[in-house]
Amino acid sequence: IRRSTKDIFYIFNNHGLYYNYYNKDNKLSKRNILISNNTLDYTQFYFSIDKFDKIYGIVSDNAIKIVECENDSDIFLLKETFSFDYEKFGVCFPYIKYMEGTTHMFYYVYSPQFTNSAIIFHQYRNEKGKWVENQIDMVNFNILDKFYIVFNNNIPTIFYLNLVDNYEQVFYSTFDYNNLSWSNPIQLTNTASNKLYLNILKIPDSDMYHLVFCENTNDQYSVKYLNFNVKDNILVQNISCFITEPSLYTFPSLIMENSILYCMWVSFDKLFTSFSKDFGKTWNKPVCDETSVSEYFLRTNIHSNVDDDLIYKDLYLFTTMNTLSILGF
């Protein structure tokens, strides 16, 4: 997470939740612990930054915790705690968004007794501090995958996978501020094949949504790309194509720079990239990132308030561990 002052917070789990603080000269000046829970993993926390450089996050272990770091500080403080019966239920993939004096929180709730189903919850706090809670959908799954939230004119739309006749399909639903409820989920895909690792890209000031995921083909997985436009408040598909041949792929991620659409994914512990110059109609032959062959790398959620980093707004990209440099494009 990079503030407009160019100082950086690198938040990670390593037998607990830690962060490194780098000053504007990219020098490590502090390493501190946020949560001392050695069972915490990447499915239990999410962090972001508001337009005033306040960094905030949500963590779920034996309670849902909101932490904040003010724009002139490098110390996180516990802001709020929401209790739940952690002996009967689990919470994973939490997401939080501060926006114009309001708060949106999303997360899955599941019971260990029912290992293949979960409920997507949404909690919204308005400008007066009043909370409203909604259950967006009941999700059935083979492997629980992360949902994605996209805001258009401050209105959230959620994308997620749900089983239909034993195959994962992509669904979406949109929040209505007038009645404080969610639209009936709409199914976007209908192929009779399993899907995993959903990733969404929505470019500001554009009505096009870019989707990518891994889809089972011939008992292997291929990286599949789709895009949709908004027509009469409904998403209409334009393109559906495979970027790769069947093999073993994980974590496809999208980014657009200078009107070039890049897709990156991991295959056999190496990072590959393909790009499209015609908004997904055609893709070049995948290229392996040489740094990923020789160095340890990881998938990272990136936020930045620096003007020169406008493309880095809540994106999942790949970085090296030591230098925090971005790989793949």
Question: How does this model look, in words?
Answer:
By secondary structure, the protein is mainly β. Helix content is 2%, strand content 60%. The chain is built from one helix and 27 strands. The chain has one helix at residues 290-294, and strands spanning 8-13, 17-22, 28-35, 45-49, 55-60, 63-69, 77-83, 90-99, 102-111, 114-125, 131-140, 148-152, 155-164, 167-176, 181-182, 186-187, 195-202, 208-217, 220-231, 234-242, 250-257, 260-267, 270-276, 287-288, 297-303, 313-320, 326-327. The strands form seven sheets. Strands 12, 13, 14, 15 and 16 form a five-stranded antiparallel β-sheet that branches. Strands 4-5-6-7 form a four-stranded antiparallel β-sheet, with no helix packed on it. It is globular, with a radius of gyration of 20 Å. The two termini are 20 Å apart. The model has no long low-confidence stretch (mean pLDDT 93).
